[in-house]
Amino acid sequence: MKFGVVVFPGSNCDRDVAYVTRDLLSVPTRMVWHEETDISDIDVVVIPGGFSYGDYLRCGAIARFSPVMQQVVEHANQGKYVLGICNGFQVLTEAGLLPGALVRNRDLHFICDRVPVKVEHTNLPWTQAYQAGEVITLPIAHGEGCYHADAETLAALQANNQILFSYVGDNPNGSVNGIAGICNRQGNVLGMMPHPERAADVVLGGTHGIKLFEGVLKAAVAYA
To answer: Keyword Cytoplasm on this protein (predicted)?
Structure first.
């Protein structure tokens, strides 16, 4: 069982994720450089937050063409787990692994805060360690975190229970329907704007995020 954390030029949350998986959960973790073309040893791929390729053109647009992303797509198509956090969520939408798009925040400001997030469904590995309807607190830090999708896509997300996380109360970035995180139809690919890795150690003031990693770890071990 091994986690792989993709590192793009401009990634800045890769070590944060590795700290959770390698040091807190004691799971072998490999940093995967964006030019790599073999990730067959990885069970769970994490695309971390940051500013891949400086966010030129638009967030995630250039990262989508990295050599490693072809491998990530194949990894996902095999039913293996992929998690995209913040910039990673943006990359997953650009790569077509998740529907919709992330655009500029409603007020056009970068937001750095801790926000309440509701766990909508618990029938998938990512959320199985939570209670349905549980409200957790997770950090956010983004300028383009406003989730947007057309009416048909939103209807499909709702019908298939693909919306896993929603903002509670004040919608910080204007995301449609308050969406904070979604999965693909199969449930093995998750993208979310909040940072669970920044809420995984009591030293950081909260541990609500570590349950997400514990849940997918349990599923990945069973899958392997």
So the answer is: yes
Q: Which token pair is 144?
A: 């383009």
Lowest mean pLDDT among 53-57, 108-112, 135-139, 219-223: 53-57
To the query of whether residue 86 is one of the catalytic residues in this protein, the response is yes
Sheet holding 189-192, edge to edge: 29-33, 3-7, 44-47, 81-85, 189-192, 179-183, 163-167, 111-119, 135-142
Q: CA-to-CA distance for 27 and 21, rounded, in angstroms?
A: 6
**pLDDT tens figures, 119-172:** 999 999 999 999 999 999 999 999 999 999 999 999 999 999 999 999 999 999
Choose the catalytic residue: 59, 86, 146, 183: 86
The pair of structure tokens assigned to 219 is 């599923």
Angle made by CA atoms 68, 126, 174, in degrees to the nearest 5: 85
Do 126 and 183 form a contact (C-beta atoms < 8 A)?
Answer: yes
Domains of the chain: 3-223 (3.40.50.880)
Question: How far is Cα of residue 53 from the mean position of the Cα atoms in its chain?
Answer: 18
- Please give the mean pLDDT across all residues of the chain: 94
List the catalytic residue out of 146, 183, 197, 208.
Answer: 197
Helices (H), 66-118: 67-77, 87-94
